[in-house]
Amino acid sequence: MPWNDQSGGNQGGGGQGPWGGGPRRPWGQPPRQPQQPQGGGPDLEDMLRQWRERFGMGSGSGGGKTGGGRSPISWPIIVGVIAVGWLLTGVYAVDEGERAVVSRLGVYNRTVGPGVHVRMPNPLEASQVINVTGQRVEGIGFTARGETISDNPEESLMITGDRNIVEIHFRIYYNIKDVSDFVYNVRDPISRDDEPGAVRQIAESAMREVIGGRNLEPIITTDRGAVELAVEQLMQQVLDEYETGVQVLQVELLRAAAPSAVIEAFNDVVNARQDAETAINNANRETATIVNQAQGYKEQTVREATGEAQRFNAVYAEYRAAPQVTRDRLYLETMERVYQRGNLIILDQRGGAVPYLPLDGMIRRNATTGDAQ
Amino acid sequence: MMPRNLPLVLGVAFVALVILLNSVFIVRQDRQAIVLRFGAYTASINEPGSSEPGLYFKIPFFDTVIMYDKRNIGLILEGQSIVPSDQERLIVDAVVRWRITDPRRFYQSALTEDGGEERLKVFTESAMRRVLGAATSDQIISGRRAALMQAIEDDLNRSAATELGVRVVDVRIRQADLPSENTERVYERMRSERQQVAGRIRAEGARDAQIILATARQENERLRGEGEGERARIFAQAYGRDAEFAAFYRSMRAYDTAIDANTPIVVPPDSDFFRYMQRRRGGN
Predict the structure, then answer these.
(1) Does the pLDDT of residue B137 top 50, yes or no?
(2) Nearest to A217 by CA among A294, A161, A141, A300
(3) Quick one: B52 and B79 in the same domain?
């Protein structure tokens, strides 16, 4: 590269190259023109005469017309056209959102804003128009082709502070805050083709540094915003240190997740949480049933007891009024009900010997009839 | 101007132009140059520290101008295998940002930018081995990354800078990863860790559910007990007013509920129930 450069072959306004281009042309062309009519034999005398005529005419007002119909355009006009063309190389336009850096003989001269501008023609001054406000973007960790996004494991897999591996896809949005810094200070500020530029290199390095200082769990859950902010700050710090003239607008973390090789195990943790919650929900549901039943039982028991007590109190009140009568009545009423229901056998022992009582059979018979009921 | 002299004039002009072109050169803002006269160094132009880009003159055909970049240049070192002090091998990618600060020295030792990059690469590799080899892999990955990068930069500036005529502006470790054969083991561990977490969460869920149910059963017993206690109190209060009658009354109720249909009952005719029946009989 440097060997080429010494011959002045580098791009745009550098070296001696342009001298050989533009300005030489007015000198280089004339000798050729007279050779065309000359045809075969070298008639030096004739050639010189034509030259003389032309130069003679050039000082006159008429132009080349008297020089014969052979050459309608005269020499001064050619020079004039070329000169105007040359001067026009100094006219350039800068769009809204763009800035141009102008260098004079290779030296930074000025930065100009939008509009049409004039500078010295080509080798003397050169201009470089750069979009500064337009948002530029760099995507890292993935390749996007249309809608499909494919992972770029070499870029996306990063090691975390707790020795896990995380898959990160992110984008850097940036623009240019200082054109002259951008143009003059760093050789490769932005990526070209497959060559990663400084912005990309710094982004990758900053992200890895930030991820390396944090644990996996927070990175993929709560700390996403913090990661974005930390990367943005770290990047800006380095970009400023290099004087790249680049301003980071935003760091966007698109994906921060466990690598696909282990994603299943991570998902199972989520499932486990659901399972645990389900178990707890079920237990809570059963609790509601049990406790409500118990409350119902308590209420029932108390109310029944209260009811019974009230009933007793009522009867007792009567009993107090007429003890013996009430007592007898209660006894008889109860026995009446009981004997009605039961299978009553009246046994008179007065008759002397106890008669045979087939109790077994009676009970069995009653049991079967009882079952049948 | 006499037309006769024209070819001569043109010839002289052409030669003059060639000589002129060969005697001027432009050093751009972002470049630096050294001038050699028959190979011997005579001057440097626009090297860092002295800002003097622009148009320069030289002796045509005698002087040679060599141009170098003045800007910050990136050098990427990919896949450096580093063995830190804890013997856990790491694959480290780094970016070295550098610039030519002494073009004369650079010309002497490297000649071209490509040559310089090649030399710097070798310097950086050994600096990385020295600095990172003394650190632990934990420090490289997280803890002291920034400090280690600074240490490599300082190391390089001590050695490479003087020898190559460059200055290393920054060293950034882009990646510091485990080699692929270890990666699978990391994944295995991550999986087992997650399985452990999942198992713990499920067990905790089951435990919590069990506790909730046990609490529910406790509450159940407590409530039932409360109810029964209350009942006992209510009864005690009611029946306590007349224990004898209460016993009679309860007995009556118990007979009523305890004896169900078809229960055989053997009753002597002289029971209280039949008292009047007998009196009547006796009266006959």
Answers:
(1) yes
(2) A161
(3) no
Count of domains forming chain B: 4
Q: What is the pTM of this model?
A: 0.66
Mean pLDDT confidence for B113-126? 91
Domain shared by B57 and B134, yes or no: no
Cβ of A165 under 8 Å from any chain B Cβ? yes
A215, A252 Cβ separation under 8 angstroms: no
Answer whether B29 sits within 8 Å of A106, measured CB to CB: yes
Q: How far apart are CA A370 and CA B32, in angstroms?
A: 121
B contact test, residue of A269, A295, A359 with most B CBs within 10 A: A269
**Helix locations, chain A, DSSP H:** 2-5, 17-21, 25-28, 35-38, 44-59, 75-88, 153-156, 179-184, 198-212, 216-220, 224-241, 263-321, 323-341, 359-372
B79 CB burial (10 A radius; 0-12, 13-18, 19+) = exposed
What is the pLDDT, as a whole number, of residue B20? 87
B62 and B153, same domain (yes or no): no
**Best-predicted range by mean pLDDT (A2-11, A349-358, B61-70):** B61-70
Domain holding B48, by residue range, is 16-69
Q: Which of B40, B69, B98 is the last residue of a domain?
A: B69
Pairwise CB contact (< 8 Å): A297 & B223: yes
Q: Which residues of A touch B205 (CB under 8 A)?
A: 272, 275-280
d(CA A55, CA B3): 9
